[in-house]
Amino acid sequence: MLCLNCKTDSLPVLSRNGPHIMATCSECGRYIKFLAQKKDGDFVMPFGKHKGKKLEDIDAGYLQILHDHVRISGRIKGLIEERLKKDI
Ligand SMILES: [Zn+2]
User: Does the chain have fewer CB atoms within 10 Å around its N or its C terminus?
Assistant: First the structure.
């Protein structure tokens, strides 16, 4: 996701903002954009190769990488952790 401020194209920092996911730059912290979610409480992957998919439809290996390497807000991280537990 390209940051218009520092031109870094990297995985953004995701945080929950009302019914939306807010993406901010992992380098400079600048707001990039809101990512609309299909309905509240239902996290839909907003970027990457699984964009638009629900957590349960994404393979655990990918989620583990995301979980370990991307700064994600607590609530979304919790959802990913729940999803990973189901897969073990
Ligand atoms: Zn930036």
Answer: C
